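Box 3.1 A note on notation
Throughout this textbook, protein chains are presented in two layers. The first layer is the amino acid sequence; the second is a token string describing backbone geometry. Keep the layers aligned when reading.
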Amino acid sequence: MKHKICFVTGTRAEYGLFHPLMKRIKTDPFFELQIIATCMHLSPEFGLTYREIERDGFHINRKVEMLLSSDTEAGVTKSTGLGMIGFADAFAELKPHLVFLLGDRFETLAAAIAAHFARIPIAHLHGGELTEGAVDDAIRHAITKMSLLHFVSTETYRKRVIQLGEAPERVFTVGALGIDNIKFLKLVSQSQLEQELGIQFSDKNVLVTFHPVTLENKTSERQFRELLKALDAFDDLRVIFTKPNADANGRIIIHLIDEYVKSHPARASAYITLGQVKYLSALKYVDAVVGNSSSGILEAPSFGKPSVNIGDRQKGRVRPESVIDCEPKMKDIIRAIKKALSVKFQDFCRKVKNPYGDGAAAQKIHEIVKREIPEIGNLKKSFFDLKEIQRGTVDHV
């Protein structure tokens, strides 16, 4: 009997991270790969990125429509409810033996709740992390408590998942899947990237991604305007924007990006989605990453690139030394960008070691799941008491 492994993906970035693991599962005769595409993948506004999954040769088993065209907290809540209904039907039809979920978005929470009630084991990636400025933090920990297997990116996060009461023998430090893509994907040349994006690189170039800080009260417009004013201080800077995800107050950022590109056509361009290959290729050729995306912390260091991390959205994550934190204020952002573009800091970043692994996460997860899945029929969990950690009885896995 093949073991049915189901991946739920709602965003371009999440699919890009899942990709190397999905390829392994697809080619292993021990498993049957299932894919549920949802949320932004199915939205024309966000590029209908489910097509990218199909172009890569994967079969999408179910599409769960859930994303309302709304930019409010109420809209996100209603979308989550629609997702739970859709995932309940999808899981009932597909009957997977294990569901893979990554991270902390609202569609991921909807899938976790539906799988939990259906008594389907969940394997969760990137648990134990902190993003104190976003609602994602509580969502991530909630998914951890509904999951049976945990694949974390650093030992610090492993300890935190155990601190949440999860059994140490089911929490595995594997690194970040994004590093696998950097190691194994064939990236395009700079000239080909320029042709595909319709731009020409300058002497200095930055990749900008900025998401709403969802635990703050409608700060997106003010903070992003501060970033745009900071970018105006660098006349010769080529700016490549990637647009934010479908979060509350995200559409105001999209509107401001479009207005900025319209008024700065010679040096700014924007994209709903670049796809994994073009995005990582852009990371390779730009001089710095600017914004508040996790990619500036997880992936950029593997290219030896500095990151300017603005505000509190990523507060709490393990940081490599290539990350420059700054306040969401024009003067502080300018200071941070100047440091990132300096010859001294550029040279320093080329020597920084990425704490998120060496590009072997997919292989490790594949091997562990193959070993563990025959034994995960029992979903009952005992709460692992913190006293066991204090006694020093938690071994490294």
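The chain has two domains: 3-175+360-390, 188-349. The two ends are 29 Å apart (CA to CA).
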